[in-house]
Amino acid sequence: MEYFLQQLINGLTLGSIYGLIAIGYTMVYGIIGMINFAHGDIFMIGAFIALATFLILTSVLGFAFLPLVLLIVLIVSMLFTAAWGWTVERIAYRPLRGSFRLAPLITAIGMSIVLQNFVQISQGARVKPLPPQIQGGITLMQGDTETGAILVQLSYMQIIIILTTLVLMAGFTLLISRTSLGRSQRACEQDRKMASLLGVNVDRTISLTFVMGAALASVAGLMFLLLYGVIDFYIGFLAGVKAFTAAVLGGIGSLPGAMLGGILIGLIEVFWSGYFSVEYKDVAAFSILAIVLIFLPSGLLGKPEVEKV
């Protein structure tokens, strides 16, 4: 039981990171019907910006108060990553919005490769480490086995990740349901042409959607950096594929579905690695995705598209 609870905590933590990235996929798809495959690399850029900002503040400027440092790192990372997200949309996607459906998809894959190689060339291919900054935790349970004692620990870093994810999820739900920007996004999701005729600035709404998704990805990048302490130029591809899988599993186009899918993917990976073979954790995640889509083609919380004729 102790081992199960520890793996459950680890899975919820990893799933929260996947869920934050998956929200960016599902927001963009919900409005313009496009899979932004460069979104995982935006997450990777957010992690690198967070690392660079942290090192500048601590090593160059001499800041020592960790909560203030992390707050500044979070703000700077969100601002710069949001600017990256806006630039990608403005340069790569907007000119192809009226083109055939494969053109934006091919461009998204190309933009992903461009961002990966840009970071590889500018930062190097070696991993970038960061010593643990938030240590300690709460011991929830202790048990004895034949091989020794097992502790169920909830680290402070895991608490921060889970609470941050819950707060951001609640905030974005309120934004979508209660604000004028959220109403504009829902109008564009239903019918962009009609929304434009009714006075909604469609280009601005889509750009802000990319900005919001990129800002969320930067938060996930900072959490990933603080949790694992090592990043490289390739983490965006792997995390992006997992987050896209989470968005599809939960029902792409649904914000709660994206978060639910992220948590499920995290739990599947962690439990499979803990009880079976770590080499096949990805096989398990994608197999369960395929099984779910056979019986629920729209995902767990997705709504089937109704085409009016």
From TrEMBL:
UniProt KW keywords: Amino-acid transport, Cell inner membrane, Cell membrane, Membrane, Transmembrane, Transmembrane helix, Transport
GO annotation, biological process: D-alanine transmembrane transport; L-alanine transport; L-isoleucine import across plasma membrane
Entry keyword annotation includes Transmembrane helix: yes
Membrane-topology descriptor: Multi-pass membrane protein
GO CC entries: plasma membrane
GO MF terms, alphabetically ordered: L-isoleucine transmembrane transporter activity; L-leucine transmembrane transporter activity; L-phenylalanine transmembrane transporter activity; L-valine transmembrane transporter activity
InterPro entries assigned to the protein according to its UniProt record, in alphabetical order: ABC_transp_permease (IPR001851), BCAA_transport_permease (IPR052157)
Species of the source: Tianweitania sediminis
Signal peptide: none
Record-given protein name: Branched-chain amino acid ABC transporter permease LivH
Family: Belongs to the binding-protein-dependent transport system permease family. LivHM subfamily.
Main location: membrane
Matches recorded under Pfam families: BPD_transp_2
TM segment ranges: 12-35, 42-62, 68-88, 100-119, 156-176, 284-302
Lineage of the organism: Bacteria, Pseudomonadati, Pseudomonadota, Alphaproteobacteria, Hyphomicrobiales
Location of this chain's protein in the cell: Cell membrane
